[in-house]
Specification:
The chain has helices at about 10-20, 20-40, 40-45, 55-70, 90-105, 115-120, 140-150, 170-205, 205-230, 240-270, 275-300, 310-340, 350-355, 370-380, 385-400, 420-430, 450-460, 490-505, 515-550, 555-565, 565-580, 585, 600-630, 630-660, 665-700, 705-715, 740-745; strands at about 75-80, 110-115, 130-135, 155-160, 160-165, 405-410, 440-445, 465-475, 480-485, 510-515, 595. The protein has about 750 residues and is of the alpha+beta class. Residues about 1-10, about 360-370 and about 720-749 have low confidence and may be disordered. The strands form 3 sheets. Strands 2-3-1-5-4 form a 5-stranded antiparallel beta sheet, sandwiched between helices. The chain has a 4-stranded antiparallel beta sheet with strand order 8-9-7-10, with helices on both faces.
């Protein structure tokens, strides 16, 4: 059968990198050095919000209220604890007045108010021992955070008879950003050495093990520079740094593993260094490029959502994927050209065997079932119906808890329990009436009389779930009402109250802001755009996999099986993080719901990584099927040749994600641990059991396509083209000499 050769461009690049490796390496190093300079300080320019829809009614109302009534929307709260004296003690009141006067004089702070001014019961704890001073810190998240850093040390701590703690939205956001940066540094410190140890175990050679880390570091540095540049034009979430580190290391390791492994195979088969690099780029290099495109498309689907939290992950993900592929196709081949056989240098396992006096295990020449992967694939294909049905049933069962998913906003409970801003917010939730700071705000615009305002207030006071209505505050032809709900700030009853408020007739235009209103609008925006994102991922995946395989059925299988690989992740997210199982060992607080945007993010990232592994497997199956025309042999051969590679890559990526998941911020913990689980399930269950069993059942029909599509694929298709391996001699192994990865790896789990 003919092999489609797509791409003279890759051929030209192959000739360039093999002819001028030092120039290629120099260019890569110059670009990396520039990235270090351009990306410095990126974390300080990122933001910690982005969960709201900027085009929604709640965002419009919030901006209008900030413009017209800036003093009425505090984002900084000082919790004043009077101890046994009580907040009405004269000495306590005098100290509070001094604190207010100082705060009023701070640059960037306005609208200072407190319980001691109007004796509002909403600003006094029910036990009378605590009260609040509220203020507005001006500017966006970054500017407000800098003001907080400057003034906070002067207010935190003991002041005469009172103890002051700092909370409010601006403090929560600042704490979240600070903790994420600290946790990310810790994750990198943990992940890099552990990853290096695993790579040494996989490759044996310390030299070969260092190469994937080099590719990963280059991708991370380049992405930081891109994110830093994007902050000039748009908001970028600080959470995106976690994805940059995880996918930068994970995908770089995947791609480098694939390329270095193929290069070592070609050297072992007797190829010269230049020839081995050329073959590697035309085969594994083409697969890496194709895989990067599929992962980038999955991540690009997040661009359809309006929340910059999700869009930030698209920016970071697309950048790091393409840079990892570029480093693997530019920097890595140049290094391999210069290293040659020395890529196998410093074989630590050989040194250990020499010290212990053990002999290296002999490489067996068998029929392909002598390896562990050969035995696994033989068993799966002999019992294909059993494995297909049972594996599918188990995956569906693991995903059932997600049917009970409840969605909510991210709040201070994402933070560790000892974070100051969380402690303050928890005191307010537990001890203050009416959820101060968690009320709904109605912005009224248009000329109206006092009687009309009074009539409207009376109407909304009678709505179910309303504890109290404050206002109106009037500024020209605009007015503001604050509605305090009976239930918690973002509970279902409060969300229903948002809809009731928006439905109320009034002689002026009204719009509703507040945490519950933002949640209602965010869920609506995601629900409206989710089908478009899913359609983009599905259609592009179908097209790309068809271009790779020329089959109509394989792309459909890829979409369905990749979806099944995510069920365990989504089920675990609900069971652990929503329902609170394992909250003690994992050190987080369950809020009874899941942040609204997080499942979308996890789906796009995990689906892309599943496609990454799927492409590695399918490309090798397709290469062998084109060579032999034997469907079952091709499936078995593909799994034997890539099973150890995919397993090793999945374990290493899972280690990186678990390091990210050790974060003290719950959303980051959920993201890291959830994707680690999805990656391991995909490698250990879907690629090892479900894919070969399903392909066995579909038989040669797997490769069917109608004549017009066959002609289309013949012209535009993609494959690891141009390289045909000779058929093995009779009685010898049908594989090339086994690499360390194939010989020593076994399925995870």
């Amino acid at each position: 059968m003919s092999v489609v050769n797509s791409g003279p461009r890759l051929g030209r690049w192959t000739r360039f990198v093999t002819a001028r490796p030092r120039l290629s390496l120099l260019l890569a190093l110059v670009v990396t050095a520039l990235a270090v300079f351009a990306g410095s300080g990126a974390a300080d320019r990122l933001s910690s919000g982005g969960w709201e829809d900027p085009d929604s009614q709640s965002s419009y109302a919030a901006k209008a209220l900030d413009r017209e009534f800036p003093d009425a929307r505090p984002n900084l709260l000082l919790l004043v604890d009077s101890g046994r004296k009580g907040v009405d003690d004269p000495a306590v009141a005098a100290e509070a007045a001094r604190l207010m006067q100082r705060l009023s004089g701070e640059e960037g702070v306005r609208g200072v108010s407190s319980y001691w001014q109007g004796r509002s019961p909403a600003l006094r704890s029910e036990d009378g021992r605590e009260a609040l001073i509220a203020a507005r810190v001006e500017g966006d998240e970054k500017a407000a955070g800098k003001v907080l850093e400057r003034i906070a040390p002067g207010y935190r701590g003991t002041h005469g008879p009172v103890e002051v703690s700092i909370g409010g939205p601006v403090a929560v956001m600042h704490d979240m950003q600070t903790i994420i940066q600290e946790d990310l540094l810790r994750a990198e410190i943990i992940a890099l050495p552990v990853t290096l140890v695993l790579l040494v175990m996989v490759f044996g050679s310390a030299v070969a093990a260092l190469l994937p880390l080099v590719v990963g570091v280059v991708a991370i540095l380049g992405t930081n520079a891109i994110l830093n540049g994007l902050t000039v034009f748009t908001d970028v979430s600080v959470f995106a740094l976690n994805l940059t580190t995880a996918m930068g290391l994970g995908l770089a390791i995947d791609y480098a593993l694939f390329i270095v492994r193929r290069f070592r195979e070609e050297l072992a088969a007797g190829a010269a260094t230049r020839q081995a690099v050329g073959i590697t780029l035309r085969t594994a290099g083409r697969t890496v490029l194709f895989s990067a495109l599929t992962v980038a498309v999955s991540l690009a689907a997040m661009l359809v959502f309006p929340q910059y939290f999700l869009r930030s992950f698209a920016y970071a993900g697309i950048a790091v994927v393409l840079l990892a592929a570029a480093a693997a196709l530019i920097l890595l081949p140049a290094v391999l050209m210069l290293l040659g056989e020395r890529v196998n240098a410093l074989d630590l396992r050989r040194l250990l065997r020499a010290r212990s006096g053990k002999q290296a295990p002999a490489r067996s020449a068998d029929s392909g079932e002598g390896t562990r992967w050969g035995r696994v694939v033989a068993l799966v294909m002999r019992r294909a119906p059993v494995f297909a049905v049972l594996t599918t049933a188990v995956l569906v069962l693991l995903g059932l808890p997600f049917l009970g998913a409840k969605f909510g906003p991210a709040d201070d409970r994402q933070l560790p329990t000892n974070a100051e801003s969380r402690v303050v917010q928890q005191h307010i939730r537990d001890g203050f009436p009416g959820s101060p700071g968690g009320g709904l705000e109605v912005f009224a615009e248009g000329a109206a009389t006092g009687a009309q305002y009074a009539e409207y207030r009376a109407r909304i006071e009678g709505l179910p779930g309303v504890l109290r209505v404050e206002g109106p505050l009037v500024s020209g032809t605009n007015a503001s009402f604050t509605v305090l709900p009976e239930e918690k700030a973002v509970g279902q009853q409060t969300q229903d109250l948002v809809r009731e408020l928006r439905a109320q007739p009034a002689p002026f235009e009204t719009s509703v802001a507040g945490a519950a209103a933002m949640l209602v609008d965010s869920k609506a925006a995601i629900g409206e755009r989710l089908p478009w994102a899913a359609a983009i991922i599905a259609v592009v995946t179908l097209l790309l996999v068809f271009l790779l395989t020329g089959s109509v059925l394989i792309p459909l299988q890829a979409v369905v099986l990749n979806g099944l690989s995510l069920t365990a992740m989504f089920g675990a997210v609900v069971w652990i993080f929503q329902e609170g199982h394992l909250s003690g060992p994992l050190a987080f607080t369950s809020t009874g719901d899941i942040e609204t945007t997080l499942p979308v993010l996890m789906f796009c990232v995990a689906f892309g990584l599943s496609m990454d592994y799927g492409v590695f497997l399918l490309s090798r199956i397709k290469e062998e099927y084109d060579r032999t025309g034997d469907h079952e042999h091709a499936v078995a051969y593909g799994l034997r040749r890539t099973g150890g590679l995919i397993t090793a890559a999945a374990v290493i990526l899972a280690v990186v994600m678990v390091a990210i998941g050790a974060s003290r911020v719950t959303n980051t913990k959920m993201l890291g641990l959830g994707i680690a689980l999805a990656v391991l399930m995909d490698a250990a269950v879907v690629r090892s059991l479900l894919v070969p069993s399903v392909m066995k059942l579909t038989g040669r029909a797997t490769w069917w396509a109608p004549a017009p599509l066959r002609a289309f694929h013949a012209r535009f298709g993609i494959s690891e083209g141009g390289i045909s391996e000779p058929a093995p001699a009779k009685g010898a192994s049908e594989e090339a000499p086994l690499s360390d990865l194939d010989r020593d790896s076994a399925p995870v789990g």
